[in-house]
Amino acid sequence: MQTLYFLVQQTMFFSIPLLIVALGGMYSERSGVVNIALEGIMIMGAFSSIMFINMFQAKLPGQPILLIAIVIAALTGIIVSLAHAYAAINMKADQVISGTAINMFAPAFAIYVARMIRTVQQIPFVNQFRIDSVPVLGNIPVIGDLFFKNTYITTYIGFAILIVSWMVLYKTKFGLRLRSCGEHPQAADSVGINVYKMRYIGVMISGALAGIGGLVFVIPTSTNFNATVSGYGFLALAVLIFGQWKPSRILMAAFFFGLMKTIASAYSGIPFLASLGIPNDIYKMIPYIATLIVLAFTSKNSMAPKASGIPYDKGSR
């Protein structure tokens, strides 16, 4: 049972950031803008928030500073995503090129600023955010050990974002308008919906969640930030595609890839896998091999939003 508890908890650590970032990509692509910049936005969000934690951790207690850092990561993600939105929506630039530019800029910026402030690119922090046991809930047999011990508040924030995203997308007028701007922008424009505005909002939400995802990835898995999120932005794109741009399927895809990442990173804590004697490099390849296999077999059935990535000319109707 201890191995099961360990496996589930570690899977949570890797799955939640994938879930949050993939949901962010969903908002952008549902509005009609492809957001390849998720990786770069994650890096920028993680950089700003971890730098804040590094500078103020000695003055503030654990959970409050983490919540403030989440807000900072979200704001950073919004600011960075606005550059992508302006290029893609107003300038009609190639959305893949503008996203790639952000992905190239982000790690260089993080390294340069970190070295300028600290003389080294690593930004350390003390991980005092782990919750040993959630009061009352942690005492529930089995369930408590699985989900409410050795956890982080970011895990529950991730599930809250999932629920809110489903409700917003399918149960609100805003969600209907967002989807219409991605699938039929001319029809949306014909009934008075500001397509540009809706796409900006979609990309900004995407940036906010990607920024949060960067912080959520770093906190449980490291004690310093080194200007990278280990390709998680690109893995989140695979989760988004595998999940067919739908919150419930994105959840399942995130946990699948999270499990693969857990096997790759924490196999030594699983007695059966540790006893096989397989080289470490083979385990590290598992998430990416799984990505290629899954996308190869599901790409024909994974249909992107109809107008996603297609520029919209205002007044074209």
Task: Report on this structure.
It is a single chain. The protein is mainly alpha-helical and 317 residues long. Helix content is 71%, strand content 3%. The strands form 2 sheets. Strands 1-4 form a two-stranded antiparallel sheet. Helix 1 packs antiparallel against helix 9, helix 3 packs antiparallel against helix 4 and helix 10 packs parallel to helix 13. The longest helix is centred in the N-terminal third of the chain and has 30 residues.
Largest sheet geometry: 2 strands, antiparallel
- Give the helix proportion (percent range): over 70%
General shape: globular
**H/E order of the elements?**
HHHHEEHEHHHHEHHHH
Radius of gyration: 20 Å
**Number of E-state strands:** 4
β-sheet strand percentage: under 5%
Structural class: mainly alpha
Low-confidence stretches: none
| Strand numbers in spatial order across the main sheet | 1-4
Give the integer mean of the pLDDT values: 89
N-to-C span: 61 Å
Q: How many distinct helices?
A: 13
